[in-house]
Amino acid sequence: MEKIALVVGSSGMAGNNLSKELLEQGWTTYGLSRGAGRDIEGVVSLHADLLDVDSLKRALADVHPTHVYFTTWMRRNSESENIEVNSAMVRNLLDVISEKKSVKHVGLVTGLKHYLGPFDAYVTSGVLPETPLREEQPRLSTPNFYYAQEDEVYVAAKRDGFTWSVHRPHTLIGNAIGNQMNMGTTLAVYASICKEENLPFVFPGSQAQWNGLTDVTDAGILAKQVIWASETPTAFNKAFNIVNGDLFRWSWLWQKIAEWFSIEHVGYENEIRPLTKTLEGKEEVWRSMAINYGLEEEDLNKVSSAWHTDLDLSRPIEIMTDMTNSRMLGFKEYYNTTDSFFKLFEQLRSDKIIP
Predict the structure, then answer these.
(1) Could you give the CA distance from residue 331 to residue 226 in angstroms, rounded to a whole number?
(2) Do the beta carbons of residue 331 and residue 225 sit within 8 Å?
(3) Which residue among 69, 146, 268, 335 is the active-site one?
(4) Which residue, 160, 182, 327, 350, is most buried by CB atoms nearer than 10 A?
(5) Whether 117 contacts 307, CB under 8 Å
């Protein structure tokens, strides 16, 4: 059977890397995004608004995917709005695809906020989750748009008979400009500004994050797991955590990142120092750097997402993610986290995103 993939959100970090991995594995690959982005050679680019059913029908008129991978989301001002919008996007897409009778499997990428809570209640409820985080932990009592996305997949799977998988990465490290949750690029941009202005690279997060153990997810290992789960019968109809496999402390990695950029670093010192505040007013600095060094993007807000980096690094607990379930089923990929960051920095420099 020909393997035909539809990657929803192909311009984002998860979707971009997934599309490339699918091509390398010989899949016919369609990439669906809302607007024009950086096209991937070999991917058939489609454009539609996931909130507009007619737009979806037009874009997908001649597409009959065997596998659908949903990797995108939209942020709104409250979790109730997040639920309304993000569930509608999944529902609309699966309703339009349902008419084709071609889909065998749907993979959904969410994240660790499944365990930690949504943006407006991010581990602030007073009830902290038990770590390491495991897939069998029950849903939180607070509303969460990840749950709403999952439920839409479950309903459509029961209706249409396809199998499904859910993938929960930790902080995602990879190359995608304009991504709303892009710690790696954000730190690279921050470090570049520090170097330009001869300022120290100051850790913006909490004491718990500075001293505690944590992990991250390379976009490449996420792509490999998503495809693996869609082709491995024992992995069908299951949710999986996905991280690189190693552990680190920010007190160690922060210095390594500073050394890569040849700048001084400052660790946690008695208080959280949000990156959003540190980068406030640096738009003209970045614009000047972009002009002087011939960078591709002059808008600081398009190459950084300080708000999300602050959310991750200000957590009051250390976060470790259990990978037992997929390991026991045969998923053996492993990535080195320093390599994830350093390879990203090298790519950003090569692409003229940072100087």
Answers:
(1) 10
(2) yes
(3) 146
(4) 182
(5) no
Q: Are 2 and 66 in contact, with CB atoms under 8 Å apart?
A: yes
The string of pLDDT tens digits covering residues 169-185 is 999 999 876 666 789 99
Q: Report residue 334 as tokens.
A: 């492993």
CA 191 to CA 113: how far, in whole Å?
A: 27
Dihedral sign from CA coordinates of 7, 10, 14, 16: positive
Query: φ, ψ for residue 37 (rounded to 5)?
Result: -140, -160
pTM: 0.95
pLDDT in tens, 255-296: 999 999 999 999 999 999 999 999 999 999 999 999 999 999
Whole-angstrom distance, CA of residue 37 vs CA of residue 10: 9
Cα separations (Å) of 40 from 16, 62, 226, 351? 8, 20, 19, 15
Residue 338's pLDDT band, with cuts at 50, 70 and 90, is very high
Q: Whose CA is closest to 334, among 349, 318, 319, 323?
A: 323
Q: In this structure, are residues 153 and 90 in contact, taking their beta carbons and an 8 Å threshold?
A: yes
User: Does 146 qualify as catalytic in the annotation?
Assistant: yes
C-beta separation of 93 from 70 below 8 A: yes
- The Cα-based distances of 224 to 77, 109, 218, 326 in angstroms read 33, 12, 10, 12
> Distance (Å, rounded) from C-alpha 2 to C-alpha 11?
24
Banded pLDDT at 38 (limits 50, 70, 90): low
Catalytic option among 113, 195, 224, 282: 113
